[in-house]
Amino acid sequence: VSIVQELVDMQLKRHQQSQQHLQKDVFEDWLQTETELTQERGLWGPVEGSLLDKWMLDMTEAGPCRMRKKMVKNDLFYLHYPYRPDVEGGENRALKYKVATSFDSKEYYKHCRPDSLVEHDTFSPDVISITSEDWPQEGDSAEEREIGFQGLRTRLQANRSVSGDQDEDSESLDPALDASEQEGAARKDESPDNQSVLRLLEKGEKITHMFRCARVQGLDTCEGLLLFGKEHFYVVDGFTLLKTREIRDIDSLPANMHDPIIPNSSPRSKHQKRMCSKFSYDDIREVHKRRYLLQPIALEVFSADGRNYLLVFPRKVRNKVYTRFLSAATAITDSAQESLAGQRRGANVESGASLLSNLIGETSVTQRWLRGEISNFQYLMHLNTLAGRSYNDLMQYPVFPWVLADYDSEELDLNDSATFRDFSKPMGAQTSDRLDQFKKRYREWDDPHGETPPYHYGTFYSSAMIVASYLVRMEPFTQQFLRLQGGHFDLADRMFHSVKDAWLSASKHNMADVKELIPEFFYLPEFLLNSNRFDLGCKQNGVQLDNIVLPPWAKGDPREFIRVHRMALESDYVSAHLHEWIDLIFGYKQQGQPAIEAVNVFHHLFYEGNVDIYSIDDPLKKNATIGFINNFGQIPKQLFKKPHPCKKLTNRTSVVDPGPIMPGLSYCHDKLFFHNLDNLKPSLHPLKELKGPVGQIIQHEKTVLAVEQNKGLIGPLYNRYVAWGFADYSIRMGPYETERCNFVWED
To answer: What range(s) does the BEACH domain occupy (predicted)?
Structure first.
């Protein structure tokens, strides 16, 4: 009787947990539906948006050259910055400076508080553990746990032995059940966690491999599972695999039962939404090996639609996952023109323009820049990508140079060398006074413990705080800044308020400030405006912080600042001296004796290979080391062991080539076809026989593709076309080679 009672109680509890999981999923789906119905121009939404609507930068790289320009509505703004009448006036006025607020929150509180169609309850079910019958036995490599989905069936006895003689390191279990069979089995065994995962899959999907991973976005990390299916892979937040071979919801686990992938990772915010992302293998553009906390444990996956994820894995698992991606994703880009790195996979960035490399098409991105095929902005983005810098990790954010030293003139003179910074010296050596002080620090350094070698700079030119302080006026970076600051804005006199003051601080006045710039200074004017109307406080001189104070040559217009700043980056002077800065950041002056001679030595914990956090046994020392890396930044991967070649400029009609302002249009004049008309010859064979006027021509790799009017080629492979303009108002799609119509969408 007791056994039957125990079984009934267990089944009842699992049924309750299953219902809670289902209710939670339905609740989230309804909230999404409600948002779509009530949004601007939605079925039940307003025709026009409100002036109090707030926007945030989307993480999708929708622009050229990995630019992020897309702004999306920020529905959580007034949850993050609610109106606080208790901090206005009276005895609690001092609290105002400890709470981040917006001047628009009060107005929103009075007039625009919407009543949700549902109550926003909080679901926190205590999920029952699920144990597999068919998982392999756990061996010495306990960090690596891959399973097939037939191993998701539950059992009543947790210690039941595994049947069969399976290899404990087996990568796949064949044959795999499809999603409908898996879900049916899970429902039969009443497995709440299994049902939650299976509901997220495509119908008929077959899962062959599963890995623990942690998704990194800014300062946030969310642990979950990476699933490899038949045609898609999935990143599912909030679930993990225990050492006991159980799949569990992380929120339901006691702290002592879960060993996080990332040491000392912060808990998930209550407003941080769990995500389940699905990617088709055909849409995987590139996969790059990455570091995290200076450890080789991460991969960055880039999709053709602009999404990219930085995934961290347990030790010794990354390379196996990388191999799995390469075998599953057959459409990975291997074209220099389309690659995020600006060169083909396997090409050496430091290789010269030899005859053999040109014949086999292995031209490096450096050679492309030297020939004028890509702009300075493009080249710097390619180098950042090759060096492991990532938008997804504020500790390894892409780094760009300060370009100008003139922030006082009404008009910039790009012919005058005094207009520009000294690219041959790091920011700490821009003035002779600071240079002498940093040299003195290095000479007189004395560590009584002998653990820290001498260095010039104890702070770094790129860190999470530097990035967040630059972008503090724009969400989601405001939230990142507040996390670093303990929930409130910094003192007004220390906030980023003026481009000129930031330059003087980094180049002259502040011994603890040697920061460089970020890519947004050359393409994104929105971060210079306080569109969210944050209360950033007043400086000691009484100036209220608001929009960024721009130099006179920007005419008070953020767009003009971006235009002129980008033009300066693409100027002849910068093109002729940019290689000197590259030597400092990515090149041979980054480390060793050349770095000492260039006054370019940083604290040793900034460099890869100087610390292994997994080998530190002392928890206090381990936490301090991780905190140091998190707060102060990480040196990029060294790309060049020899001096970077100088770009030889050709004759131009003007000092500033307007082409680079539009990415991809930076070509030397002697490369343009109309300068060499005598060399043009008609093709012996037609490239493409069209049935009508030409609508689009694209050069793809070494071929030229063309389609008729009312047709367009679909990138990045350009092997499919989309057509419109038919009498039935349909849209049609098919392969480029055969022009056969495979899909028809009718109105």
So the answer is: 354-647
